[in-house]
């Protein structure tokens, strides 16, 4: 028999903790006048009933929740059992008071939502309660909260600050739903709850990713084909529904095919051009991106400067007067060049005329034949320009000519030993000796010419005067001989005639006396 409140020996309603496996004595809860309690059988189909221990006269139970009345007061809960002594059976309900077990408790947290690309915060304090081991309420401020899991970490992230849950979208385009498990702990016991978050879908404008096409280089007259549709995407709508336009300032320079998605670009003049790409979805949201196109006639090849920076380095064996230089050009840069063409010329800085020209289809070595093979002369200089094609197909050219000026060979004169002056070769004339002899010769010639003029005048003016032939009497054997190493200057009156416009700009009479004839000859040829 199951004892009730009016039966003798009734022990009252036992108290158990929720969500806890409890053992309760059956003494004072059931009785049998003929059979010992240890010989009884107790069974139940209720999920709260676990087992009966006849040796210890205990039943094991576990309740999942506390049931409250309309005023929020916990009420007793029962387990329907079957009691038997081997012959007879009876049934009834054992009542239990279910109280808190000291574990933190969650009330239901409503579903939360926020827009894509943003975040949300939620204070969880109002959804928490806590008790001690006897079921008495305690402060929830001492509880520690933590995030156990996020069902879709590709959609959102979650963190706890104090007792506030912070949720943030991982990017600006993702939307959907995820469940976040949050745990509350008082240091001894803990409990979990599931909070659902929705990320609302907000229409996004199509995205344009230019990538390597942000800046491009194209030659004048060449065509540049770019797949525009491959750059455009939309997370909300199919790419087929995106309307794309491609424009530039030069009419007709850009042609866009909306079917293939290919834009063909070409310009006839060099300069920097801007190409605007616009993409619009069916909801009216649009975005734009700008490409910078550098239109060039050709790209530069740079001569190596004093710091070693550049693409081409020039080497010449010599630039002495009367020489025909051998030229080699080294490609010291990172460019791979083909279709090489080296243009060389020999010009004169005095006359301003370029006489000789040539082409080499490699970087050398090659010979520069100056003045029809006679070699470089005073005022000559060699110019070099290089045209080539790089590995990307672009034409390249040196923007400035390389120049190398002809120079006079430096004569090395050995030093005379101070202690052996008698061994000096007296037949060798120094430059200073030759100069002194030339000056002496000029003075002697001038003296003879002046004396001859005076004598001629005396001969004309004198009547019956005795004429003395100084020329026959003068002994020229002692006069110094003209050195073949030095040519005397052109005597007055022997210089070439000046052109009608006068002496060329920047020339001196001394230069005209020596180079005027060559100037007039080249002028007639041109």
TrEMBL record:
Transmembrane parts of this sequence: 429-455
Domain of life the protein comes from: Archaea
Keyword Transmembrane set for record: yes
Keywords tagged on the record: Membrane, Transmembrane, Transmembrane helix
The protein, known as: Cadherin domain-containing protein
Organism whose genome encodes this protein: uncultured marine group II/III euryarchaeote AD1000_44_A01
């Amino acid at each position: 028999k199951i004892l009730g409140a009016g039966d003798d020996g009734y022990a009252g309603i036992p108290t158990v903790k929720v969500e806890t496996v409890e053992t309760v004595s059956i003494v004072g809860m059931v009785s049998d006048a003929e059979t010992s309690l240890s010989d009884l059988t107790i069974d139940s189909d209720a999920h709260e009933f676990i087992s009966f221990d006849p040796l210890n006269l205990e039943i094991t139970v576990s309740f999942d929740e506390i049931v409250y009345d309309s005023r929020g007061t916990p009420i007793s809960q029962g387990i329907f059992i079957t009691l038997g002594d081997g012959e007879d059976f009876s049934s009834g309900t054992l009542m239990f008071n279910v109280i808190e077990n000291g574990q933190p408790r969650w009330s239901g947290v409503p579903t939360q939502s926020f827009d894509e690309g943003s975040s949300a915060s939620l204070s969880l304090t109002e959804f928490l309660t806590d008790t001690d081991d006897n079921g008495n309420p305690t402060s929830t401020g001492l509880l520690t909260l933590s995030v156990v899991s996020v069902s879709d970490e590709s959609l959102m992230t979650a963190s706890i600050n104090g007792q506030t849950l912070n949720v943030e979208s991982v990017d600006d385009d993702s939307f959907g739903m995820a469940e976040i498990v949050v745990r509350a702990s008082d240091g001894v016991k803990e409990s979990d709850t599931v909070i659902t978050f929705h990320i609302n879908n907000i229409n996004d404008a199509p995205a344009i990713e230019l990538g390597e096409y942000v800046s491009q280089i194209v030659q004048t007259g060449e065509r540049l084909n770019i797949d525009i549709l491959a750059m455009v995407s939309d997370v909300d709508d199919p790419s087929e529904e995106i309307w794309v336009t491609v424009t530039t300032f030069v009419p007709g320079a850009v042609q866009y095919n909306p079917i293939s998605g290919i834009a063909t670009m070409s310009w006839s003049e060099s300069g920097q051009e801007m190409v605007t790409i616009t993409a619009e979805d069916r909801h009216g949201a649009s975005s734009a991106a700008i490409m910078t196109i550098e239109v060039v006639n050709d790209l530069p090849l740079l001569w190596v400067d004093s710091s070693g920076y550049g693409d081409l380095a020039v080497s010449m064996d010599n630039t002495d007067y009367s020489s025909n230089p051998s030229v080699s050009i080294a490609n010291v840069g990172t460019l791979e060049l083909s279709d090489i063409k080296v243009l060389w010329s020999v010009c004169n800085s005095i006359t301003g005329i370029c006489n000789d020209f040539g082409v080499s289809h490699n970087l050398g070595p090659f010979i520069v034949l100056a003045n029809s093979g006679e070699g470089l002369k005073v005022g000559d200089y060699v110019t070099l320009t290089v045209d080539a094609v790089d590995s990307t197909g672009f034409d390249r050219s040196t923007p400035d000519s390389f120049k190398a000026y002809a120079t006079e060979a430096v004569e090395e004169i050995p030093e005379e030993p101070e202690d052996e002056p008698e061994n000096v070769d007296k037949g060798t004339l120094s430059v200073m000796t030759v100069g002194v002899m030339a000056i002496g010769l000029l003075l002697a010639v001038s003296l003879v010419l002046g004396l001859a003029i005076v004598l001629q005048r005396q001969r004309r003016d004198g009547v019956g005067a005795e004429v003395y032939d100084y020329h026959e009497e003068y002994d020229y054997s002692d006069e110094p001989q003209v050195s073949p190493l030095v040519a005397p200057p052109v005597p007055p009156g022997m210089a070439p005639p000046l052109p009608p416009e006068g002496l060329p700009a920047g020339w001196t009479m001394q230069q005209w006396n020596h180079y005027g004839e060559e100037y007039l000859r080249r002028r007639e040829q041109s």
